[in-house]
Amino acid sequence: MKIHNLKHFITAVACMVLSIILLCISFSRGFNLKFIVGALLLVMLAIIDFIFSLKKGGNEVKIASLADERDLFVAMKSGRKTLQISNWIFGGLTILCIIIYGIIKQKTFIIASMVFCLAILIMFLVLLIANIYYEKHE
């Protein structure tokens, strides 16, 4: 068997290592169900990633070969609209949490607004990095 996708293989190995660590923590601290469930979920994710690492060619390559210009245009527009709507939602939630914090003065709402701002920042950085990557490689 040959590994065709190194990213999935590394992810699978990392998931197996983390599941072993969780099982060791569970056994050292006594039986704790949350560590066992976490380890089982990581083992399932590792199995899926091992399977994907052995596959030749990903689904993206198959889909890209079957797509025409209209499909690519629809995918581009829907991806752009999804990003725009999620920016509106996170921005609205940020402002709402700041307003509620101004009224109630509870720290939970200012922390939530910072989390929503961080989500917007992460989405922007991912979009910027993706744009730079595709401008150089296509």
Please trace the helix and strand order, writing H or E for each element: HHHHH
Number of domains: 2
Low-pLDDT residue spans? none
N- to C-terminal distance: 32 Å
Strand content: under 5%
Shape descriptor: flat
Please give the radius of gyration in angstroms.
21 Å
Average pLDDT, rounded to a whole number, is 88
Number of helices: 5
* Percent range of helical residues: over 70%
Largest β-sheet summary: none
- How many strand units? 0
Specify the structural class.
mainly alpha
Structural notes for this entry:
It is a single chain. It is built from 5 helices and no strands. Helix content is 87%, strand content 0%. The protein folds into 2 domains: 6-59; 67-137. The mean pLDDT is 88. It starts with 5 loop residues before the first helix and ends with a helix. It has 138 residues and is mainly α. Helix 1 packs antiparallel against helix 2 (33-54) and helix 4 packs antiparallel against helix 5 (107-137).
Give the arrangement of secondary structure elements.
Blueprint (H helix, E strand, L loop, with lengths): L5 H23 L4 H22 L4 H8 L2 H36 L2 H31 L1
